Amino acid sequence: QVQLVESGGGLVQAGGSLRLSCVASGSIFGISVMGWFRQVPGKKRELVATITSGGNIDYADSVKGRFTISRDNDKNTVYLQMNSLKPEDTAVYYCNADRIRSSSSWFYNVWGQGTQVTVSS
């Protein structure tokens, strides 16, 4: 069994910064694409940023220049550094792993439980 656990959310004023972390636990041999998504009530979950195991990165246009995604493959961890936060960044942020290879099986489209980010104006 594998699990993704996020941390680092909270309340911050507009213009401030937060750093989210997501650790994959279990007997893991490798993870393909890891990413961050976010969702507000009544809206679809949207992509924020993704990073491949080789370091290729994509960002949503709305966060380019403000957010930075990174990962530590040895620690099975992905990070999201969020700077110049805006009230419209308020959402529940979810970590995702596209494909995880463990000692027992492959796991696909694995999600964390989410962490709340609230940006006050």
Any idea what the radius of gyration is?
14 Å
Strand elements, count = 12
Biggest beta sheet attributes? 8 strands, mixed
Indicate the low-confidence ranges by residue numbers: none
Beta-strand percentage range: over 45%
Class from secondary-structure proportions: mainly beta
Whole-number mean pLDDT: 97
Describe this structure in words.
Helix content is 0%, strand content 60%. It is built from no helices and 12 strands. The strands form 2 sheets. Strands 2, 4, 5, 6, 7, 10, 11 and 12 form an 8-stranded mixed β-sheet that branches. A 4-stranded antiparallel β-sheet has the order 1-3-9-8, with no helix packed on it. Strand 10 and strand 11 (106-111) form a beta hairpin. It is elongated, with a radius of gyration of 14 Å. The mean pLDDT is 97.
Quick description:
With 121 residues, this protein is mostly beta strands. The chain has no helices and 12 strands.
Key words describing this protein structure:
eight-stranded mixed β-sheet, elongated, four-stranded antiparallel β-sheet, mainly beta, single chain, 121 residues
